[in-house]
């Protein structure tokens, strides 16, 4: 680990949970860049066996992310008007000594999935939260109602009924995946403009 990564990790520890969510993707990027740079220096065209630069999926320890990460206490409910959106709430826990990164979440029941916060203005960073979510080593993150959570747009994919289960696929840096089923609970009342 280079000096940049050490400083980034120390600043993440000092900044707490939110600092970890925002700063650890920077550490992953720095590690991937450093590894790609060092791998490109290894390649020697005169040796007759040049090595390709390492990709971000070649970061050590990332191939086991789906095994190291537990997703628990998950459920969803219809939110907003018209029943076209589901709020998805869960806890994700990284039980390893290696940071992991969720780089995408999909579901066959959803036309789109994105991050949302119930009480704050939603920016592109919030919407893309689950496209680059760092899971710190030996820690858990909770996405509850009223805070940061995942939203599913049902759109023309069909109706999702209360009591049913919806499969959600979590994709990790390194290529591993985990499918988790979320039960649909009773809809949250909507009090917005009519």
What shape does the CA trace take? globular
Determine the number of helices (DSSP H or I, runs of at least 4 residues).
Answer: 3
Please report which band the strand proportion falls in: under 5%, 5-15%, 15-25%, 25-35%, 35-45% or over 45%: 25-35%
Major sheet attributes: 9 strands, mixed
Instruction: Tell me roughly what share of residues is in helical segments.
Output: 10-25%
Q: What structural category do the secondary elements indicate?
A: alpha+beta
Distance between the termini: 55 Å
Overall pLDDT confidence: 76
DSSP E strands, number: 9
Order of helices and strands: HHEEEEHEEEEE
Task: Evaluate the radius of gyration.
Answer: 19 Å
Q: Low-confidence segments, ≥5 residues, pLDDT <50? A: 1-55
Task: Please give a handful of descriptors for the protein shown.
34% strand; 194 residues; alpha+beta; globular
């Amino acid at each position: 680990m280079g000096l940049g990564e050490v400083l980034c990790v120390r600043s993440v520890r000092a900044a707490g949970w939110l600092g970890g969510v925002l700063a650890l993707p920077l550490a992953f990027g720095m590690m991937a860049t450093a590894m790609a740079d060092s791998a490109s220096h290894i390649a020697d065209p005169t040796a007759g066996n040049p090595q390709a630069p390492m990709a971000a999926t070649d970061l050590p320890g990332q191939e086991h992310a789906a095994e190291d990460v537990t997703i628990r206490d998950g459920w969803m409910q219809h939110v907003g008007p018209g029943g076209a959106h589901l709020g998805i709430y869960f806890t994700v826990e990284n039980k390893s000594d290696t940071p992991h990164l969720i780089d995408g979440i999909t579901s066959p029941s959803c036309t789109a999935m994105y991050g949302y916060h119930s009480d704050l203005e939603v920016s592109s960073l919030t919407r893309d939260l689950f496209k680059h979510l760092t899971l710190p080593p030996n820690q858990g993150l909770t996405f509850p109602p009223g805070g940061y959570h995942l939203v599913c747009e049902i759109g023309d994919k069909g109706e999702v009924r209360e009591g049913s289960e919806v499969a959600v696929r979590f994709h990790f840096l390194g290529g591993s995946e985990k499918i988790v089923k979320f039960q649909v609970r009773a809809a949250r009342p909507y009090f917005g403009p009519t």
